[in-house]
Design a protein that fits this description.
The chain is built from 14 helices and 16 strands. The radius of gyration is 20 Å and the shape is globular. It has two domains: 209 residues, no CATH class; 183 residues, 3-Layer(aba) Sandwich (Rossmann fold). It is of the alpha/beta class. Helix 8 crosses helix 9, helix 8 packs across helix 12 and helix 8 crosses helix 13. Strands 1-3-4-2-5-6 form a six-stranded mixed β-sheet, sandwiched between helices. A six-stranded parallel β-sheet has the order 9-8-7-10-11-12, with helices on both faces.
């Protein structure tokens, strides 16, 4: 497939419409939102001069806006940003407004471009009850919705496998702890229970209201795979107990909506961290400082896919580590799912928590399209794997290795 071309910035859609190719329609639209006020200048560079309070107020008067239009051969892709932040989707007093923007304004903006597929980024999957709330309005606009959670689960698994391999560790010797057993965390845990070389132990962590689900999943994994599985309960706010398994594990995978629930300074030396949370589950700045100063943890971003095999190049200023003069071949996993759906006739969209059959189909397409995980990174920094392997290598002070 040929390399991509496109337009970036708030004028991306109007500039694209001036081209000959705009006589068609967008095949895929990723609908997402800024993580927090620090992200706003990526779309509006001049807003860097505004205070955080002013950036927040500015978004109150905005409509959804396309930040990038990318053409990959015959495939046309748009990234649509919603005017709210991750913490607003968690705040009960603001969630209803965010839901209306997503269900009405976002669908209308995508429909105006003739979009065929809408994939969900950030916390829009959870906001829409894993896509269920969007199916009917999208269908009326001639759009198919897919949450992106199948490919995100695959990307988390592949990031785990890449990190373990590059650190020179044996998967069978790893204690893996998963915080959050929602759509992503549960799917990753189920994928992990099916791999050939399973970890030595699996610990599932979530809030008290999820205790029934935790118990069922742990029993299912023990019964069907023989994998040593237990679960742990946080307090009602999602805060971890001082003796949490999260601080005595080899691999810590997180997919939650509680900001900074993991204290990066308490993480055991040797721990591999893989975070797919919105907002961040642990401090990127603190994690990178430990990498630079002590080289004793391996903090990895999850949900990233290298899409160079299909010719994808983005020039939007995300903080992807692998960027050159032509942009980056890295895409969010949720967008990757939308592109796979558009490229693979017969594959089904992901609505609700992904089933094993859904994930299997997307994994087959993932591999057939030669998609892979980019270099492991923490925030915008590529991890110095050689340095980390030399410093902590096969040894880990986490629970499974002691």
């Amino acid at each position: 497939m040929s390399e991509s071309s496109g337009f970036i910035g708030p004028d991306a859609l109007s500039e694209w419409r001036k081209t000959k190719e705009s006589s068609g329609a967008l095949d895929v639209v990723l609908v997402t939102h800024p993580r927090d006020e620090n992200d706003l200048p990526r779309l509006f560079p001049w807003s860097v001069h505004l205070s955080m309070a002013d950036r927040f107020q500015l978004t109150r008067h905005m409509k959804p806006v396309f930040g990038e239009i990318v053409t990959i051969g015959a495939l046309r892709v748009g990234i649509l940003f919603l005017p709210f932040y991750a913490n607003e989707l968690i705040d009960a007093s603001a969630r209803r407004h965010c839901g209306q923007v997503l269900e009405v304004d976002a669908i209308a903006a995508a429909a105006e471009t003739g979009a065929k597929v809408l994939c969900l980024g950030g916390l829009t999957g959870a906001l829409s009850l894993y896509g269920h709330k969007l199916v009917k309005p999208a269908e009326q606009a001639g759009i198919v919705v897919t949450t992106g959670h199948a490919v995100t689960s695959i990307s988390v698994l592949r990031t785990y496998e890449k990190a373990v391999e590059e650190l020179g560790r044996r998967p069978a010797e790893q204690k893996v702890t998963v915080i959050g057993v929602g759509s992503i965390g549960r799917s990753f845990a189920q994928l992990l229970s099916t791999v050939e070389e399973k970890p030595s132990e699996l610990v599932l962590v979530d809030r008290p209201q999820m205790s029934g689900k935790l118990d069922r999943l742990a029993e299912e994994f023990r019964r069907t795979t023989g994998l040593k599985t237990s679960f742990e309960i946080t307090d009602a706010t999602g805060a971890l107990p001082a003796d949490s398994s999260c601080y005595s594990t080899d691999v810590l995978v997180s997919a939650v909506s509680t900001a900074y629930v993991v204290d990066i300074d308490k993480v055991a030396p040797g721990t591999i961290l893989i975070d797919d949370s919105q907002p961040y589950c642990w401090s990127r700045e603190g994690a990178w400082r430990r990498v630079v100063e002590r080289a004793d943890i391996v903090p990895c971003e999850a949900g990233l896919v290298d899409c160079r095999s299909i010719g994808f190049r983005s020039r939007f200023p995300f903080d992807f580590a692998e960027v050159d003069a032509d942009g980056s071949s890295t895409a969010w996993s949720c967008l990757t799912e939308g592109m796979i759906f558009a490229l693979e006739p017969g594959i089904t969209p992901t609505i609700g928590e992904p089933t094993a059959e859904m994930i299997s189909a997307y994994m087959t397409a993932f591999d057939q399209n030669k998609l892979c995980i980019p270099a492991l990174q923490c925030g915008p920094h590529v991890l110095p794997i050689g340095k980390l392997r030399a410093a902590i290598g096969k040894e880990s002070s986490g629970g499974a290795s002691q």
